[in-house]
Amino acid sequence: MQNHTQHTIVALATAAGVGAIAVIRLSGIDAIHIANKIFTSKNLENLPSHTLHFGTIKDGDLLIDEVLLALFIAPQSYTKENVVEISCHGSPYIIESIIKLCIKNGAQAAKPGEFTLRAFLNGSLDLSQAEAVADLIASGSKSSHQLALQQMRGGFSSELKNLREQLVYFASMIELELDFGEEDVEFANRAQLKKLILNISKVISRLIQSFEMGNVIKNGVPVAIVGKPNVGKSTLLNALLNEERAIVSEIAGTTRDTIEDEITLGGIRFRFIDTAGIRQTTDVIEAKGVERTFEKIKQASIVLYLLDPRETSEAELTQIVNDLQNSNSNNSKLLLIINKADDENVTTVSHTFTNASNFIYISARELINIAVLEQALIKAANINAINTDEVIVSNIRHLEALQKTETALNNVLYGIDNPITSDFLVTDIKQALYFIGEITGEITTDDLLETIFSKFCIGK
Amino acid sequence: MQNHTQHTIVALATAAGVGAIAVIRLSGIDAIHIANKIFTSKNLENLPSHTLHFGTIKDGDLLIDEVLLALFIAPQSYTKENVVEISCHGSPYIIESIIKLCIKNGAQAAKPGEFTLRAFLNGSLDLSQAEAVADLIASGSKSSHQLALQQMRGGFSSELKNLREQLVYFASMIELELDFGEEDVEFANRAQLKKLILNISKVISRLIQSFEMGNVIKNGVPVAIVGKPNVGKSTLLNALLNEERAIVSEIAGTTRDTIEDEITLGGIRFRFIDTAGIRQTTDVIEAKGVERTFEKIKQASIVLYLLDPRETSEAELTQIVNDLQNSNSNNSKLLLIINKADDENVTTVSHTFTNASNFIYISARELINIAVLEQALIKAANINAINTDEVIVSNIRHLEALQKTETALNNVLYGIDNPITSDFLVTDIKQALYFIGEITGEITTDDLLETIFSKFCIGK
After folding, report:
1. What is the pTM of this model?
2. B21 — contact with chain A (CB < 8 Å)?
3. Does the beta carbon of B74 lie under 8 angstroms from any beta carbon of chain A?
4. CA-CA distance, B21 to B95, in Å (whole number)?
5. What are the Cα distances from residue A284, in Å, to A304, A344, A441?
6. pLDDT by residue (tens digit) across B338-368?
7. Chain-centre distance for alpha carbon A192
8. Going from the N-terminus, what domains does chain B have, and what CATH number goes with each?
9. Is the dihedral of CA B59, B65, B66, B68 positive or negative?
10. What is the pLDDT of residue A388?
11. Which candidate from A87, A96, A251 shows the least CB-CB separation from B251?
């Protein structure tokens, strides 16, 4: 990977498309030299870092644009290399012209994530922090944003670094014992080592457990809307989604790409599953419908069970609740919702339900009590505001490495409690170190880096 | 309009959507003050202009992002006001959060074009230059880009300014005569005035005439593809368009929104008209087809007449060429194209045409000689590289003002040659001055500014 840093790379750093301005980023040893060849208004060599310069970009005699140039002198930049950011007018034609001009003058088109890869290779960020940059850009809710930000700022890394340093110490002590071979010395106190391994295991185990929440925060809380045909599932879904759309388009010019069938409430992303089924106007036949309902419930963290009280007897309801709870192997939360609250008969009918206070009365069509339902969703999601002290794992690569670390640590514990030679013990500790190192990038391969950074957007 | 500059405005300046980074722009008297309230890493007051500062943006205790802040101290900025540009991570969620935070701290969401409006009101740009900013962003070809750039840099304005100053001088001289009322003095030499007016008229007339080219450069050269059913019109159109698409997508990440049925060749935009008709698989019946053909030719600057030589006799061809030339009221250029050059019979057949050297032999299907056709298109467009000394008008508002100026100047000339009192002469000169002033913005109304800037994108 080292040859990556031999050339200077260029790419559009802002979103593609027409805007007032666009920013093109150059990074590498020749960044200032290349910029100097196309920027005709002043000599850029030997200017101080973190300064801005107004002037023109020309291709020979042909004027391309009036631009603002931002200079970052190595190592005071994102990549720790020389970086020039060119703010030009946000015309795709101009952007293309300037990038081509940079390439003509010696730059290479950057690969996806190549700027962040360089930041990692040059020690600006560790690997888990670099991965968090992509998560941060992709995050669409307050909680996923906070999670990515915490990871990018190194919360996760510092927790792992601390554990790793302690393990390294013990590994070196045991290796020292090996040097003394026959002499049966014990530099590494086995009781202390065991205590440390148990401590580390506890932390790793907590991190592994945090993935469930981390995953939900990152990818959204899966919610299923179930109920009989024509009870108003589709209307309810649209009521929830439309409100989101209205909020999102509030600030002109920042139109967020709203993902079909997702909403953000109280900073938490909710993902409605199997909405295609709901959107079909002709409902599946009842038998298949029930089967499908149970399938959905299995995937969901929250189930919205929509009822029409005029068509549901108390006995029927008890049956439904029991059935749902029995089928509910992953403990998804059940919210019972009485739709058609705009119908004057409903209140009367619902009084016949014993447990009426546990129901949420809404009208999906008349948008009555949708806010109450939203509050119930937020409560059911049970995601606390991200505590900046508590590290939450949200990356499946990190989860897998942590699980491998856990296995290695269990082997170490077994080794301490059983008559196993020090060299096997060292091997197991080194295994644990290896997997922890994979997370932060002390241990990497070109393949791993390729896999991680190819998922980035170009220009980052 | 003056109250516009009393408050500080904020908007996303880069294209909407996900990118590596995004730039949010604040402009106004409180720009630095507002930035200072949300940027927690250092005090921004009293820092030098054109400097960059790395740090965090927080909403109270809640971290929003790590950003780079660019400071521009009035009047050293685009708007001549204090300007802060915040480079944040390019996540729509973060962009929205930061804009909301700025608004919470006293900024107002910018209206479309409001930054450029302020640049105009504060004297950074005149009106025609401000309009060119929008044209520059929208320009998608080398020639339209050069045209907009020239106008933005004031080529048009300085030409008009010179004329206007001379007219102002004469108007004031004639007004002086009016002050002396009865005394029959003549401060403004009528022969000199006439010479000046004739000079100015010549320039205005040249500018009016330049609009035809300006319009073609800005909106594309209209090209019609005509010919009998099944001669290969649709295949030719696709051959030309597909090549364009391939070129455009060459640089990853800069995907230009290619407009359906437009191509850029040699820096010139060509716009194919009535392609819907061509794309229809079932051709219209012949009688209606001919009528339609003549309609298309009227709108086109260039007509590509596609022939299948095996189905066209020389007599027929002569007839076609005559018909086309007779119907061709606006002198569009005619390119006769022999399709199916991949067919071995074609060369033989075409030799029977008297004027064979004037034909372009292509195969739309086999992509033979498409480059030759493209060169012929460029030549037929007859647009020279934009001469930076020669001003070309491309804005219909400017055209209209120039036409009104011309009328007023003709009235002045009539007044000089006829026994008309000086006060009428002054009125006509002032009319001419008024219309020239409308172009550069010495004369504006709120309505005019509203109309112009509402077409801008937000953030510009």
Report:
1. 0.82
2. yes
3. no
4. 10
5. 19, 30, 50
6. 887 676 665 555 545 545 456 788 888 888 8
7. 37
8. 9-126 (3.30.1360.120), 133-215+395-440 (1.20.120.430), 220-381 (3.40.50.300)
9. negative
10. 56
11. A96
Q: Are B20 and A13 in contact (CB under 8 A)?
A: yes
User: Is the pLDDT at A376 greater than 50, yes or no?
Assistant: yes
Q: What are phi and psi of A86, to 5 degrees?
A: -105, 115
Strands, E, within B73-128: which ranges?
Answer: 83-89, 108-109
Chain A residues inside the 8 Å CB shell of B18: 15, 137-138, 257, 457
Contacts of B52 in chain A (CB under 8 A): 50-52, 70, 72
Nearest to A18 among B51, B146, B457 (CB): B457
Amino acid in position B365: R
Percent composition of chain B: helix, strand, coil (DSSP 3-state, to 5):
50, 15, 35
Distance CA A381, CA A141 (A): 14
Which residues 329-348 in chain A show a CB within 8 A of chain B?
Answer: none
- CB A333, CB A301: distance < 8 Å: yes
The pair phi, psi for residue A361, each rounded to 5°, is -90, 125
Question: What are the residues whose beta carbons fall under 8 Å from the beta carbon of A104, sequence distance 6 or more?
Answer: A59
The answer to whether ipTM exceeds 0.85 is no
Mean pLDDT of chain A: 83
Query: What pLDDT digit, counting tens, does each position of A274-286 carry?
Result: 665 555 444 444 4
pLDDT tens column, A225-256: 888 777 888 888 888 887 655 444 444 444 44
Helix orientation angle between A396-417 and A422-440, rounded to the nearest 10 degrees: 170
**Contacts across the A-B interface (CB distance below 8 Å):** 212
Kindly report the number of other CB atoms within 10 A of residue B39's CB atom: 20
Residue of chain A whose Cα is closest to the Cα of B456: A20
Site of tokens 């790395």 = B54
Q: Measure the CA–CA gap between A26 and B264, rounded to whole angstroms.
A: 28
Partners of residue A153 in chain B, C-beta under 8 Å: 63, 66
List the single range of A164-178, A314-328, A338-352 with lowest mean pLDDT: A338-352
